[in-house]
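Fold it.
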Amino acid sequence: MSDYTLKELEAAHKAITSSYRKINKVRETLMSKPSPPKSQTTLAERNQKALMIALNLITREMEKHCE
């Protein structure tokens, strides 16, 4: 992985956290419908998982900077 500054990692973490929260709200809205659209629900779930992976990787890199 390329070397990023702690400041860059923090900014990326903040942006991805925001996107994760938005996707979570979208997913909740979709699931509250009587007949949620399958493709949109699946896409929201996949995006949510991908963002969580990104957050975990960024957190790991941030921890390396603190060592």
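The chain has one domain: 6-66.
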